[in-house]
Amino acid sequence: MNTYRPHHPFANCWIVVAFLGLFAVQFGVSPAVAQDESSDAKRAQKKKVQKLFNEGKSAAQSGNYEEASDIFEKALTMAEEIQWDQAVQMSQQFLVKSLKEAGTTANKEENYETALDYYEKVLQYVDNDPAVHYNRGIALLGANRTEEGLQSLQRAIEIGNKTGNTRVAGRATERIRAEFISRASEALQGENSSQAQINAALEALDQMREYADPSANSLFYRALALHRDGQHAQAIQTARRGLNMHQGSRSDAAKYHYYIAESQMALGDKATACRTFNNAAYGDYEARANHALENDCDDL
User: What is each CA distance from 102 to 10, 93, 120, 234, in whole angstroms?
Assistant: First the structure.
């Protein structure tokens, strides 16, 4: 089961004031207009649509988005039957909003299959919203439908970049990276790794490149895998690339320096390795780096 959870899922805020304003302006039928209607049946149908909108509004204000979506779907069907274009447009707009909110709620509650049902309905009406594809991707990953989830996140990136929504595109990119980095990290747990574990880590990081460019963190795990595989020159080069991309603290950067030093030591460059260990003596790597300095570098 994938355990990653978005801290702030992308949800469309329900703006009640805007809703009420649009409803009053576009759906109000004055007595004069009503008197001009040639069909009593059509007038009655319009009143039913308006009644449904009031019910949908109340459900949405109460946070019952599932009920709201059902109501707005009925309003949409009725508006289409009488060819009331304004009502069709508004019904669809608020149906989509309700479905998005219902999907977000289901995602937060980890009801991923339910969330997917909502997002599939949304996609019947709109396909150019990167947030929908992002949240659908999160639901698919949560439901262990990994390949589909990655494809949905990739779609979010494509649409986000095309429409200028770089925030969603960036979140989708990071979520894809997190999926593969998690696999690599799990494969490399502990101080020693089997060849199968090393290969699994490198394979995951290679596959990540099909969806997203490497990050500082992915390069760290690639360097670690290469180091444990005995490919020390490549490990040093990869760790340095990650270090150049790294934007965190000195303590967090220590892990890159540590495995650069370890690989330098393995290649027989003891003097350089000992200088590098000094840069690794921070945070979680302080004890290990100091141990190397005291035991392997004491004669320099």
Answer: 12, 14, 12, 48
